[in-house]
Here is the input.
Amino acid sequence: MSLDPIVKHRRDFRRKIVLPIALSALGMIFLLFVLPLILVATDTISKGQIATVSSVLLVICILVPLVLVFLVLDVLFIMLAYGSAKIPAKIYGPLQSVRRLVQRTSSITIRAADKINQPMLAVNVRLARWEYFIGHLLGLSKKPPEERPPTSPPQAGQP
Here is the structure.
């Protein structure tokens, strides 16, 4: 009897990948948390011994992987610093072509804006002239105020 390949794959995945990870995680939880509590509760070991074991586990489980991670990052940064001298030579050509494209686009935009803006300015000027002409013809426009210095009320002691 042949099993469906998907069912077989799922069963193998659970048995070969999920189960070992779950068992090792449970074992770590038991060794790091449950076993020390049981040993202290039964007076098999003292709190000082737990502190010593935790210090050793701190070095093994936290500091050593941290040093390895930072070593990898240091090597990566050294490689980036070495390779960064070669990067500008490789991106100069594409960077120059992008700059030229942007320059062409901006000049086209400026010309198009001028072509669109000129008729609008001409209409605005004509309308302003008509407004001035009709306003003065019909007497609707207000006369500009005369430029006189403001009068202030007389202060005490002044005539």
User: Anything to note?
Assistant: The two ends are 125 Å apart (CA to CA). The chain is about 80% helix and 0% strand. The longest helix spans residues 87-138. The helical segments are 5-41, 47-84, 87-138.
